[in-house]
Fold this protein.
Amino acid sequence: MDFQPDLPIPISYVSGRYLLFSIDAVTYLRREHHICGVLIGTLPQIPQQNVFLGLPLELMPEEARLLVDKGVACIVDEAKAHDGMNTLLEEDRRRYLRDLESQGLHVSRIQSDRKERNREQTLKKLEEKKAKAKAKANASAAAVQTPTVPEEATSTPSPKDAAIVDIFNAEDRSSSPSTATTSMPPQGAVAITPATSYPPLPTPPPSSHLSAPAVPPSYPLFAHLHSKGYFLSPGLRFGCQYMAYPGDPLRFHSHFLVVSYDWDQNIDIMDLVVGGRLGTGVKKGFLIGGAQKGIDEVDSEADRVDTVRAFSLEWAGM
Amino acid sequence: MADADEDVIHAPANASTQPEVDLSDETQDFRFLNHLNFFADSSPGIPRRGEKDFEPNPTELQADVLAASRGAMHNALSYPRLHGAKTRVIAFYAPDGYVPPAQPDRAKPKAEEDGKSSESTPKPARPLPNSARISPDACVYVPSPKGQFFKRMGQADSSSRIWLLPEEALYLIERGSLDIRWPRPSASAGGPGEEDLSVPMSLQAAYACFMGRGSLTLERYSVYTGLKRLGYALVRAPGWCDDIEPQDTDVSDGSKAAPAKLHGPGLAGILGSLFNWIHDPLSTASTATGPIIGTGIHRHYMDVYRKLAIIPWYDPVTAPERHPFDTAPPFRVVFHVYKPSTPFKKSAPPPPDFRIAVVSTRDQTTMPTMTQLGALLESTPLTPRVGGKWSGVVSYLRIADSAFGKEKLYENKGGPQGPKRSRTNQKPRKQRMQTMEMSIVHRNRAQMDLAHLSVTYHLCWVVDHRELKMLSAPIGAIVVALARIYPTLVTALRQTHPSRSGSGLATHIGAKIYISYDTT
């Protein structure tokens, strides 16, 4: 769980976007650096929905830049790195395939174990039920027994599991009783599509790293809020630039709709009204801010971050 | 008016009481996934929305819950993409794109390797007609396709291998339904021992190789995969390639004529003709010089109303058809979308249910201009949708033409007067009903997401006085937004109709474009 990946973490640069494919890197960056990104991939276990998404994780250029500036990550041109696939040595291929196969064997063993356990559980449950039915029939007068029900409810998290088990059970009985001994002999290793290409490919050398990503003018505000401990995510859903969360978005609602302005930029009063009303309407504050110094007045982006000021608006009504 | 205003704003505040809550709007707590049994093959439902805390505090309870959430997320995301022996579909990556099977040195070993020696029949020189359908962008082929996915994806070549486009291959590998292999290291004489060395492609490799191939961008792919996950079928539209210019199509002279018409008299010309049609040719007075009603004999209110209807309006039906390539690249239809319920045949796709143009809101921060929208709408006979995407977040805008002027409100005012023009009456009425439904359903959302367009005023009264209470705000509000963003357009309209007041202008814009927002 508290896995520490090797730094710097390579961020894949694919067709102009910044992606992460390693789950360890994703968890690590979220835990240690408050970088969440947006999951854009399909979860293979429940593919037909859009509520829970899976790898890869897309990072905003701001996020990638922040990590690169911190020295935590580096940018790798993934298309170029994968050219190395053609020149992979034969023994490397063999080793890689062997690894995959052993992983596949492991998974299929787990699967058959689980199946076995499920079977045993259902069989046990069936027996219990039978016994209970018998007991009930024997002493139908003593109808004051309720203890088994809550017990069961705690052991199985949802009634759905029970249903699944029942289905499984029905299937099993209809197929044949003899499968108990031969249920899925682990003959075939399950084939696996790995998430990353970095066992077979060597880690790209530092010389091949790309330069830090170009960032929009709102970057100083982004970095400023991030340095204050906020988690930031893209704000398209609320018509702003970023959403600022006080903690991990897994557990907290966002507090601010963030829009960045240049220091000397004229702000349309309508935008303030709109943002203020919208923010209050969705129980968030409307936060505007910007860096006092322009990019040509300071040495680096980092210096600008120190000059950021931010204001929040709330719609009070009169 | 102010009260109605407040109501609209405060409605989303009690969002918890709203029946429809879009779960994908927020980051979900992955612990809810733990209740789902992944190894069961029944399809699990989507968990309910969980409670979140307001802000972090130093309690251990909160830390534990957070750690549990992260752990659940870690577990869910590290779930491997497995291919059981029965359901496994193997595909091969062809970096050079589609290779006709006539070349035996490529096709044969692959067929053998899948244990299908029947495939090695001498390849006929005549390709099946659908070989021509295989896009030059296709880069993954499936030697022995099985399963439900290939009903709506890919194109078969003459040796019944299915060729997949990059986005299709990527979608399938991502959902764990396809095992894509790297091409063999070299053209070494393929002994049986050699075949073990086809290395499976990782998800990362698939992204690296397929993304950017044949104008596939991550935005387009996100839209594609997002809709696929919801069960829609998508095919590429003719406007897929950005670099196709109108001149290399044979209809170029036709397409050149259309924009000239639009930029010249264009809209005004059409409006003018309608305007004349609305007007009674026998009218005794001209609006420019005399009273509108004139001195004729008016036996009926209808005649008077008809003469009062001097504001020209736009009718999408009469607009000229345009070629898809007249549109500027980001605002061009790239996908045709079919609802899951639409019977769909790969070889002969029916007219699409939606047309989608994909726009990256990072690169394109403003709404499309009137010209761009106009071109987009005129190139499509039906409703297109624009999917905007900003770093992984996709939102869809539905853009539709509507002809507000078609509905003659004064005619169905008194009921019995109606039948006179029942033909023109029926159709528009339906349109109006749809418009109203949509705006009511999506009112809050439209307000939220178009907020950066300064949606502040309600101009519904321009459309019709008597319907004021029934029409919801965003129609008018968006009118204002567009008018504010496109001052040049307003100026142009002013020049075309110098006598019209500001409200009249709004009518034009409002009659032309209606946007509703929707996060499917």
Summary: Confidence is low (pLDDT under 50) at residues 145-186 of chain A. Chain A has three domains: 1-88+201-215, 90-182, 216-318.
